[in-house]
Amino acid sequence: MMERNVTFVKTLRLWLCFRNLGADRRAQWKYLQCKKVSFSLSRPSSEATPGGNSGGESATLDVILKEIREMKKLVTTVPTLIEDIKSIKVELIHLKESYEYNSSSLKSFQDQVSSLERGVSQIEKIQNSLAVPTRK
Fold first, then answer.
1. What are the pLDDT digits (tens) for 21-72?
2. Count of H helices and E strands in the chain?
């Protein structure tokens, strides 16, 4: 029963403090335990805060700044990637043209070979019909 009263008193005190804040401060306000939880979730405990500052807000800003810098590094590589993609497109176009040329050349070669085979076959037929049986 005593714990319930203590919790009620803490809650009442917290509510009164919150009520006395201005509208802009209310929007930024966070319960102390919530701040600790969000800080521990946003930054691992093994990571030291730069400058020896152990404040939750500063640490969160440091994490955000670090992430922004990492994103900036990624964004700076985008123009290079675009140029690489353009050059790959050009190479693919040349490869396609080469494939089409080689394919048509191969088709032409196959047609010539087929024509030669038909010619050889006809010559063999003529040669067999002209062949004189040998006498023994």
1. 777 776 676 655 555 554 444 444 444 444 444 455 667 888 888 888 888 8
2. 5, 0
Q: Are residues 37 and 88 in the same domain?
A: no
For residues 103 and 89, give the distance between their C-alpha atoms in angstroms, rounded to a whole number.
Answer: 21
Residue 64 · residue 43 · CB < 8 Å:
no
Q: Which of 74, 90, 107 is at the close of a domain?
A: 74
104 alpha carbon, distance to own chain's centre: 38
Domain count, the chain: 2
Question: Does 11 lie in the same domain as 68?
Answer: yes
Domain identity same for 24 and 57? yes
Amino acid at 51: G
Q: In which element (H, E) is residue 128 found?
A: helix 78-130
pTM, whole model, 2 decimals? 0.40
